[in-house]
Amino acid sequence: MSEIAEINYGPLKALVGVWQGDKGMDIAPESDGTEENPYYETITITEGGDLTNGEEQVLSVVHYRRIVSRKSDDGVFHDETGYYMWDAENNVLMHSLNIPRAVSLLAGAALTTENYQNGNLNFELNAGIENKDWGIVQSPFMKAKALTKSYNQKLVVENGKLKYEETTMLNIYGREFEHTDINELVLQK
Ligand code: HEM
User: Ligand 1: which residues within 6 Å by Cβ?
Assistant: First the structure.
């Protein structure tokens, strides 16, 4: 019987599962100031196998879908999908992120083994419009009216919890705005 080689998910293994959390806080822009939105969310992260690029680079992949609802009215107000990808040979982590505002990005970072040990994980990823490796793509409207300048994500998985902080720097309503989101989620059994 032939054996199927097991996929080496490395740091991505710690992400796989259904995560739920209700301690979210969103700080978002408004034309006349700032809105603060307490929220809950589900992030579903599934194994996506591996693939080869250019007959050379092997990436292992997990896919995610993130649905975020306002506590005040239970309405979904953020819907995000993408992949986390890991290049084992160079120990590089990448995160592609898409939101239906016509904004997409690819964030990345080099890891060391200190970023993932004993099933735990911590990392910080960046993307920016001036970043030549990790960029942001957005529609002409968004470029003109609600430009995403940079994105930073810090994420930790430890003891069955996933905590993140993310900062999206915007230029909107004629000013710079620090759009932030923070939450703590628990792995569902
Ligand atoms: C939990 C995560 C997030 C939540 C709950 C959230 C929520 C919001 C809210 C409530 C607004 C204001 C919308 C309005 O006034 O109509 C907003 C604006 C915006 N968000 Fe987010 N956001 C999240 C993450 C992100 C991320 C990751 C990005 C991009 C990388 C992003 C990009 C934008 C942009 C470009 C705007 C300006 C659009 C506008 O207000 O007209 N957001 N977001």
Answer: 26, 28-30, 37, 39, 68, 77-78, 97, 99, 101, 103, 105, 146, 148, 151, 166, 168, 170, 172, 179, 181
134-167 in b/e form (b: 16+ CB < 10 A) is: bebebeeebbeebbbebbbbebbbeeeebbbebb
How many Å lie between the centroid of ligand 1 and the Cα of residue 170?
Answer: 9
Confidence tier at 14 by pLDDT (50, 70, 90): very high
Mean pLDDT, the chain, rounded, equals 97
Amino acid 31: pLDDT: 97
> E-strand spans in the chain?
17-30, 33-53, 57-70, 76-87, 92-99, 103-110, 116-117, 120-128, 136-138, 146-158, 161-172, 175-187
- Lookup: tokens for 107: 């964030």
Using a cut of 0.85, tell me whether the model's pTM lies above it. yes
Higher-confidence residue of 189 and 162: namely 162
Q: How far apart are CA 11 and CA 162, in angstroms?
A: 13
Show the domains of the chain with their CATH numbers.
Answer: 10-187 (2.40.128.20)
pLDDT band at 108 (very low <50, low <70, confident <90, very high): very high
